[in-house]
Amino acid sequence: MLDAFIIEEIKRRERLRQERERPVLEIPVPVPEDRPKRRSDDSGEDDEDHPERGVVIIDMSV
């Protein structure tokens, strides 16, 4: 019978191995050639001209 420490270490190494073998999809991001200068937020203009921005995280684990 193996010690609990050894069993946990085997499980930890198996999880690390599975993470390394997980497929990865790289999405190319186009780089804008000429970026307009930003106006300061103090200009008092409405946010209607500026679309909402954010981050999307897609978890494809089973």
Description:
It is a single chain. Helices cover 29% and strands 0% of the residues. The chain has one helix spanning 4-21. The longest helix has 18 residues, at 4-21.
Describe the secondary structure blueprint for this structure.
Elements (H helix, E strand, L loop, with lengths): L3 H18 L41
Q: What distance separates the N and C termini?
A: 32 Å
Strand content: under 5%
| Helix content class | 25-40%
Number of distinct beta strands: 0
The ordered H/E elements are H
Question: Helix tally?
Answer: 1
Broad structural category:
mainly alpha
On the 0-100 scale, what is the average pLDDT?
A: 78
- Low-confidence regions: none
What integer value in Å does the Rg equal?
23 Å
Please give a quick description of this structure.
By secondary structure, this protein is mainly α.
Features:
62 residues; mainly alpha; 1 helix; 29% helix; elongated
